[in-house]
């Protein structure tokens, strides 16, 4: 069994090398029963993130790799990373490692054991610990509630950057993944559900520690309206693809 951990990377040079090595050491010490590789998916970066990853790839061949995409976008980076992967399980986490690495086993084990087809981290289910500003927490919960009503799912947290999916399920939904930015998380969860995939939410320990500060690449007001619009557009798309996904 092989697992690829993809980290979308855009101008992350201040923390990139330290966090890649932190993840590498953690996976080595975990002594997992599966083979694994870490892939940095550089997208739209103007710093030396690609050079850092190139150096790490030479230092740790077979364990660290990277690909470089000219245009920016988390969704674009993930799709490119997973489409070129040959792994049985496709995982991703944010490059700032906001979710504690101690949650990694919970993320992968249900897929290894055949108990789930998609595992998603949640900051809002029982047992989760989330340190973030109340404004961002309110917006995330409001987004989840709105999407549950409109898209008819039952998950508590669509946007947490900590997910893993089986190759089989990804292949089923891949033709319908359109978003190149932050909405891809929602597409992954909702489209997987339409296939009948078993989706498991796990509580995570999450800290807003981007570059050591409470910052994010998401612009709260602008992206909140963008997400609402995308949800409404996505609902129309779902009506067209529901029948197909239910039969694959």
Strand order of the largest sheet: 3-2-1-4-7-5-8
End-to-end distance: 23 Å
The helix count comes to 8
Helix share, percent: 40-55%
Helix vs. strand class: alpha/beta
Indicate the radius of gyration in whole angstroms: 17 Å
Count of domain modules:
1
Overall pLDDT score: 91
Instruction: Report the sheet-strand fraction.
Output: 15-25%
Report the strand count.
9
> What is the class in the CATH system?
Alpha Beta
CATH architecture: Alpha-Beta Complex
Characteristic terms for this protein:
alpha/beta; seven-stranded mixed β-sheet; Spore Coat Polysaccharide Biosynthesis Protein SpsA, Chain A; single chain; 20% strand
Task: Describe the protein in words.
By secondary structure, the chain is an alpha/beta fold. The chain has a single domain, classed as Spore Coat Polysaccharide Biosynthesis Protein SpsA, Chain A (Alpha-Beta Complex), CATH 3.90.550.10. It has 8 helices and 9 strands. Helix 5 packs parallel to helix 8 (220-245). The longest helix has 26 residues, at 220-245.
